[in-house]
């Protein structure tokens, strides 16, 4: 908490550029303009009574974004704090007994209950003061702001974030609802995310519908964290009853630390099945390991009567390491179904081949050889094709 001495002031901010003051690394051309009016009493940020008003807000970067106002009011009563937010972009409240400066420490302390390996060995900090709060926020569509800030993904409808946290009994629940997210090519609709704890488990559940060029896909995620282990189920199913695309991926991840106290992840893919264009494929048991300096894939395989994909190998800062991707009779029309509707290319036919990814994590290289006896490109039968390709770092493209 900080000591507040000024209780009333007006200010005008003109052409403020955070990048020039090294406050941010991105957005060198970002400029902020606004008027500020503050009127409050209180010695600490956690017990302020009063208001802060920002108006005539102008954000300049790739175009201009204007806000009429951003109004925050806080009022304390019997050790409880009510904070209200009113603006053109976000509205809502935070209510309860809480200290802004201690919320992040409280949340981190609770997460470490489920993944204790994240605790530092020399962490001797006292248990933070428990917060108890409820909150509800409505966020207006962010399309115009994201365009100005050159962010590809944005929301186009009102979103909400709500929930509660009770530090005394160590319970929390957070709900996020986003009716639509888009990058102009792909739409993700009806997204709902629920994060909560139950008993000894931290749980995350998510549900979305992805709009594809000729279909839609229902996507669901269910995960839980307990005692340094994360279990995750990802399931999907399309709406086209004639051409079924469905399945699930089930993983188990173990968090650990090596002799140098560095975090390691051991991820296991458990056996499941997927359906690709009415064809049943088996996801074989496999393992992936990373210490965030290297990545090793051991026997990842999706196999079926007619199609097979296998991935093996390692990649690190050693240039001799490589990951091998083997394709055996893969149906390219299934891959093309995921391309944006505005895409100028489409593929069909059955493809086999091999790709090698080598080099370092900072600058990987890729070489691939593929062949097809019945390739279809943009609905035109090409026929037999053999091709070699590699990644061009100068043009950041794949050369054939």
Can you characterise this structure?
This protein has 400 residues and is mainly beta. The protein has a domain at 1-80. Helices cover 6% and strands 61% of the residues. The chain has helices at 100-114, 143-148, 332-336; strands at 8-16, 31-41, 49-61, 63-77, 80-87, 90-97, 132-139, 154-155, 159-166, 171-182, 187-198, 201-211, 216-226, 229-238, 245-257, 263-270, 272-276, 279-283, 286-290, 295-304, 308-315, 322-331, 347-348, 350-359, 364-377, 380-392, 397-399. Strands 15-16-19-20-18-17 form a six-stranded antiparallel barrel. The radius of gyration is 26 Å and the shape is globular. The N and C termini lie far apart (59 Å). The model has no long low-confidence stretch (mean pLDDT 86).
Number of helices: 3
Q: How far from one another are the termini? A: 59 Å
Q: How much beta, percentage-wise?
A: over 45%
Q: Report on the biggest sheet.
A: 6 strands, antiparallel, barrel
What is the string of SSEs from the N terminus onward?
A: EEEEEEHEHEEEEEEEEEEEEEEEHEEEEE
Provide the structure class. mainly beta
Number of separate strands: 27
Range of helix content: under 10%
- What's the rounded overall pLDDT mean? 86
Spans of 5+ residues with little confidence (pLDDT < 50)? none
Rg, Cα atoms, Å? 26 Å
| Overall morphology | globular
Query: Within the largest sheet, what's the order of strands?
Result: 15-16-19-20-18-17
